[in-house]
Design brief:
The complex is a heterodimer. By secondary structure, chain A is an alpha+beta fold. Chain A contains six helices and 22 strands. The longest helix of chain A has 29 residues. Chain A starts with a helix and ends with a helix. In chain A, 55% of the residues are buried. Chain B is mostly beta strands. Chain B is built from eight helices and 33 strands. Chain B has an 18-stranded antiparallel beta barrel. Chain B has a three-stranded mixed beta sheet with strand order 12-18-15. In chain B, strands 4-5 form a two-stranded antiparallel sheet. In chain B, strand 2 and strand 3 form a beta hairpin. The longest helix of chain B has 22 residues. Chain B is globular. The interface between A and B is large, with 53 and 62 residues.
Amino acid sequence: MKLKLIAALAATALGAASAAQAEDVVQKSFFPYAGGAVPTDSFAKPGTVIDASNVDQAKGVLDEAMYNIIKNGWYTIKIVPTEQYDINPNYVAATEKNYKTVSLGGPTGLTNFIAGRPFPQEPDASDPTAGEKLAWNFKYGINWGDTATITPFYWTLRNMNDGTVERILKMDMHFINFMHRTKLDPIPDITPNPSQMYRAIYVRVREPEDVANTQLLIHRFEDDSKRDEAWLYLGFQRRVRKLSTGQITDSFLGSDLMIEDIEGYNSRVRDMTWKFLGTKNILMPYYHHNELQLDDAHAQPDYKFVAFGGKGSCFPQITWQLRKVYEVEAVPVDPNHPISKRIFYFDAQTMLSGRTLIYDRGGKLWKTFTIGKTSADYHLPINKGSGIVVDDSFSMVDLQAMHCTTGQFKGQVDPSLSPVKDFTVDNLRSVN
Amino acid sequence: MKKEWKKAIAMVGVLGALSGGLYMHPARADDDTLQTRNKIDEDVQFRDYTGLTKLRSLAQSDIDKDLGERSIFSSVKLHATLRASYDATEELNSDQYGAHAGSGISFTGSTPGSAFNGLKYANGAAPVNLFGAGANPGGGNFGVVPLSQTYRKSVNGIDLAVPVRPCNLDSRGCISGYMDANAQELRSPEFNSRLDFLRELYADFELPVGDKTLAIRVGRQQLVWGRTDLFRVLDVVNPVDLSRNNIYDELEDIRIPMGMLRADYRMGAIGPFDDLNIQGVWTFEDFRPNNLGQAGGTNTPLNAANVFRAFANCWQNGCTVNNFTPNGLPVNFGPHQIGIRQAVVPTGIAHDTFGGKIEGELKGVGFSLNALQYQSQMPSLRGGIASVDPFGPPAGNPTNAAAVYPYALAFDIHFPRVTLWGASLDYASDRLATAFRLEVAYTQGEEFANTARSTLYSASNVFRYVIGADRNTFIRFLNPDTAFLISGQIFGTHLMNYELRQGPLGPVGMPDFQDNWIGTLLVKGWYRGQTISPQIKFAHDFKANASVIEPAIDYLPSNSWKFTFGANCKFGKDANSFDDNSSAAPYPNMPGSPPQGASAGWGGMLPLGMFRTGVLGMAHNETQLFANASYRF
């Protein structure tokens, strides 16, 4: 009896220690700057402006492409204090609850995944699967939460040499998670969902007129072995066309982005070979939207968009924070893929990809992709308290063609703007 | 400067001023609920044989109003598309296509120097070899061209004269309610009795039904079925206007919107389906056939409009038919002896279109099952109508009153009732990086010319199918950064009740091929952020052995402007022959032939060889250059 009591007490103690350990893992993952433990650099301090004259002093906190961009005199960046964001507590709790049973493998690519961040543990450079685990963290990241809408969403195509605006696309972009939901009912899954679709993206182009009403619908599945399904509705044909995989890696509406680039990376985990290259502290595009000098173009009564400047007006006029990131290399499995690799800089706290470098088939740096993030508390009132970090601007610069596409967002975490029925193929046909 | 040029320039100027006015005072009023999109479009086409074939100014506005939640409806929206155009071709090239088109003509038979021999067929008319004289009391020998000339080539077979001027200037051969456009309607086709300037006008209502949605659209609209381009298999709910640019314009621009009530019950994901929807449609606007152009017009697919007008004129006024006798001589016919009497264009609810489809997604395959009952949008020439015997009063008919003579070349145009059953699929192959599309349709009730039948037509069930494949493929030496879209399609047609036999002089029966295929191929590339897009379209009719290739390039210098330049070039075999029924013996008194006999199979390219030449081959001599500029705002 005594022995049993001791064993029970020991088990309880171990359990408590284990729970504390679990909590610690999750807390460290989601709140890496707790207690003011923010990264520091002797030069790149808040308030510093980095330009061509002093960029060499900041080389250690810049990715290769950004260093060269600033060195060329194309862009200057202002540093603001590193910020720890409030992450939706349900997502954090789901991580805590589930992560210990999650493992790589199985028919869908992950086993026992329910919700939250699948692998909150600090990546280990000696773990050959560390890169893939981070890719899963990105796939099931907090991202926009369970649903969100960017409306309007302006894409501007520019000649980087002279800043000529070639084309402006105006569109709406809608996102919804069908599975692993943590905030909005129904939790965790929307049913019925016969194909076990994890996420859907719906895009409707409003302008210019020659592509008005073009719509794109992407279904991504829980089963990572299943190829995304994508449909394109061309307004001038009034017909829905199923897209072949080749169209996912082709220019989207003439921009510098492929469909695969949307949100940083928009395809299956298994389409790339992932390699964790290390943990770094570098400057990342994080800011307070409402405190920026915003653009008067496209201004709405309640909202202005992020301004762009620098060489060819290809670069967002935002602030940057020194943040902990995971550097990950992704090499396409398909030898015919139009790129040879991507280098992602995943933000350790949010697991969002703020910076991505894209290399051409010959291994030369081709494009540099920046997705600017704002604190939800410094954006539209509807986004306050949403527990996400809001994607708010992007810049995809083709360094070889000296061309860029810039994006200006009005992201809204408003479920009423993205009802489930909008993510069906028939919805594309209903436009006209 | 010619008066016509001045007039045309003035009209283009008016349209330009209108568009400029719109631009200066934008109609666009984008807010959350009202959106307006406008387009001004200039189109020019030029053919080697006839010169200018299009100089069209077009203005179009698309207006959408979102009324939001109303009453029991979760969403109410209104849409209107207004379109107006003016084509100055008829004025600027009036010698070919307008008030001065055609002339007096004479037929000399196929044997040079042969004498006219029309007496035995002329039913008392003066034996002259000039079209219209004597046997053509309604008019004279003017404003006509030989049917063979509408094809721009000397061909074998019979030949007739075709009046080619607008119907307000020359009513000969105009078919009331079908092919009777006046000059104004040819210049501005939207301003007609069907109010086509109201191109689309409909209201959308969404009614929540539990967690499903019932979506209702009522009004004039386009309803697009199927998954293919260029040729239609399931996309047959709306008729099409082929007078605009034959088969070469986007279907969106040439579908003729119809007043419809369409209801979609959208179930979303249900059971094993990722998406499932049921649609019902009722077209309540009176039937409209496909617009096949008008004789003398710039676009007359299959040359049908020219043949019809020539035959209608024969019926109305009498006519001379060249090469009608076995020794290739012209023959005069009197009124009501041969030709087209009328077009019976159906009206009323019994002739409305009804149908529906089930469409959805199942395990990565998009599918639809379709059913439709409608009036054929293509005409059927039904013989077996009462006509006058050209050989004088037959026994038992001393007054030579009109009577039904088997195999007589006397027709009414009908648009028969057709029932369609169809299905479609699409599927993206990961391994092949290719998206496949499939459509099939089985129709009952379609009618075809058939010289083996005493009424010169018969019905046949038809099985049509198409398989298409789309693949984005890098052609790196042309563009290392952006893939080319390569899209191919094979259309097949099989006539289930085919009839063809060998007559003494050639085949007799249905001129269409029992099985035929048309292949299409599109290769399209993009440069400079899709602001420059070259493309090549190619189509080949396998049995007719006729082809067309259309290289073109789009240039978008800004968000508003788009320029297109290209050429539409036809090549391959340009004429196939078939029995023209001239060797039939419909009349009891007809000398030298067994009475009441079917054709022996003697024929040529005109008229029924046209079916074997096909829509590509019949435009063989319409190779053209084109340019288009559009401004959208």
